[in-house]
Write a structure and sequence with these properties.
Elements: H1 6-16, H2 20-43, H3 52-70
Length: about 70
């Protein structure tokens, strides 16, 4: 069994995400998964208020988006 390099994995990932069906599935399913996770986090009891964990997750996601925009090589 051969070991694949990180470049091999990323190339395969890039190729698989060019498929139009794959793009449509991602367009629908990624937001569904995201909001499901936020809903589960909202259900976790927290000392201050019930949505604490969900709010923290949303702040983290927003900060990651901002960081990736800053690191973009455009």
């Amino acid at each position: 069994m051969t070991t694949r390099s990180m470049d091999d994995w990323l190339n395969a990932y890039g190729e698989s995400h060019q498929n139009p069906t794959n793009k449509k599935v991602h367009f629908v399913c990624v937001p569904v998964i995201f909001f499901t996770i936020i809903g589960f986090l909202w259900a976790i009891p927290a000392p201050l208020f019930s949505g604490l964990w969900a709010c923290l997750a949303l702040v983290f996601v927003r900060s990651e988006e901002h960081t990736s925009e800053l690191q973009s090589p455009d």
